[in-house]
């Protein structure tokens, strides 16, 4: 059965490394960058971090072009490797009668799915305060680690609209009671001194275009039913009234203010976690919507206001909450033509994934294929991980990230966005002490920062699957512990990412019309294959 299936796939797989001949014949052959050795440190949490100081920090550097019939493999593993590069040659011929061992992956590049928007993280107040709290040299190394060709080349940035829990205080952009015309709207010192300067530095550091989207946590307290930015509260009144028009204008003012500072806003989410605003005594900024309330606000206020203010090109992302809400919210909002015409995408958080299978993402895509799905927030916190809040070197948290990315993208998500870019040793600052972990932890007292396993897991995707890549079909010959996903990049490179969460190695074959890749996936590792 498998051999028949494999024969049928071979005719569809002519591009899997036949690209190599074309690449070598040109002057733009793929040169896999090399990665310098990190300074490893073990804090006793089930893995290691890489230590970056003003003097030393691991990074990518230019490599040599692949020769014909050659492929590259990057490996990171719990045992210590970080983006370890090896190259090898394909077997010269494919023999269906040859003995096959281990797991066989069949890559079918003629079956394509969604295009990839990218991967990234959030420019929270906490993250930018931490980054600004270190030396200029170290700050540039941190931003380079995320955004430059020497780093993992993030391509998405999320920006909280005013304060969130990862701020040092609650604030809005207009605390002038009754100012429905938003005449007194103004960015805060956190935007001007922390977020925007670092965003501009990231843009200057990156060769890729960085896509930015904004997310609000709460309207100003005077606009809410409980007169507070926290706790059980919603926007006063109903869709179409003065408060909803003013709140929609607030979005437009945010877009304009950031544009004026040189940061183009690509999209806005309607509300960060709208379910939080129905939780009594919720400790940090929030505002509640039901699906019906969000639907009506979009079609009567937010969509028309952005168009009226000249921002019709700014995309609106609905939900921005956990997966269990997805089916009912998609039905309620996107089944309404008046709302659907303004909605470009669906934002999903990872915090309650265990309660709802990823298939709901595919179901949403199948019903409403014109709206993209984007994973807009994830972090290792008490809901998703065991203590401590900051677990330096914890390899299992990297596994959680890669599992989520593979699962979401295998079900039509166009990208995956982490939460805070960098936190301190406590997992903050956070004004309500809602501390969590981050891919980079800043130890300002000792003048270093630590790259966590989460950083490298994310990099296996963000570095090698640039925006515009397209997911392709990859199937396995049998059930196994391996998790995997494949892409074709804009440069026509084949990329296959393989995650092994087991404590034992697994033999792997990747089949192509031109030959076979024979490898061994190390225990507790993630690999990126490029051909």
Overview of the structural elements:
This protein is of the alpha/beta class and 531 residues long. Helices cover 26% and strands 26% of the residues. The chain has helices spanning 2-10, 19-25, 125-132, 136-147, 189-205, 242-260, 291-308, 326-334, 337-340, 359-367, 395-409, 453-462, and strands at residues 34-35, 39-41, 49-52, 60-61, 70-77, 84-89, 103-115, 118-122, 156-161, 211-216, 265-269, 315-322, 343-349, 372-377, 413-420, 423-424, 440-443, 448-451, 470-476, 483-488, 494-500, 506-512, 515-521, 525-530. The strands form four sheets. A nine-stranded mixed beta sheet has the order 6-5-24-21-20-19-7-22-23, with helices on one face. The protein has an eight-stranded parallel beta barrel with strand order 8-9-10-11-12-13-14-15, surrounded by six helices. Strand 2 (39-41) and strand 3 (49-52) form a beta hairpin. Helix 3 (125-132) packs across helix 5 and helix 6 (242-260) crosses helix 7 (291-308). The longest helix is centred in the middle third of the chain and has 19 residues, at 242-260. It is globular. The two termini are 28 Å apart. The model is unreliable at 1-28 and 94-99 (pLDDT under 50).
